[in-house]
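Appendix B, Record 12. Input sequence as logged:
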Amino acid sequence: IRNNGFLHQAHWGADTNGATNLNDYLATDEDGWVHAAWVYDGATDTGQIYLDGVIDYEGAKNAPNGSGNLIIGGRNGGEAGYVGLIDEIAIWSEVKSADYIAALAAGGSPLVAPTQNALRVTTFSYNTGTGELDISWSSNVGESYGLQYSLDLETWVDWTWVAGHPLEGQVITLEADSDVTNFLLQGATNPFGPAGANLPSVYVRVLKK
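Logged structural output:
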C-alpha cells in the first residue's frame, strides 16, 4: 500500500497504483478489512491488482531482473514497515483466474479449488467425552451447505447421517436461514463420536451446494 492509500504493484521500474484510494474505500466499508491480491503473469509480463475480489488494475509489467528475499509488511532492508493487521497470507507459483480470486475474497479456502465453493468454518468445538461437535460458518440465507471431513487434507469425505438417524446414510444438507449457520452434531450422529478423541487430527470444511 503506497502513495497515500493505494494498492500498489511495484515491478522493477513499472510501478503502478490501483484505481481505488483505500482511505475513501474504507470510510464506507462494513468491517474495516479488505481482501487484496496481486497477480503477475511471467509469460506475458502482465500484472493485476484485485481489491475485494474485483480487478483494480491490469497492465504491463517488467520481468524480474534481480534477486532477494520475500518480505511481507516492509521494504527491502526493513524500512517503511506496514502499520495495521494482516491475516491469512497465501502465495501461489501459478497465475490464478479472476473467478478464483473472487471466490477467495468471498471466503473460500486457499486449500481447495473455488469451484467446490468451500467456506471456512468460523467456530468449531468438540467434546472428547460425548463426541458432540458444534460448528458455525458464514452463510447466505436460502443457500444450502454440506459438511466434509479429512484426516490428511487430501481426501475429503461427505458427512452423512449415521445409523439410528431418520436420514441414515444420506449426505447432510443444511439450508441457511441467517448470515451465520450453526450446526450441532450430537455424539450419536457424529461420524467420529467419542472415538474421535483418539484421532491425531481431523479437518472439517463447509461446502456451498
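The longest strand covers residues 54-60.
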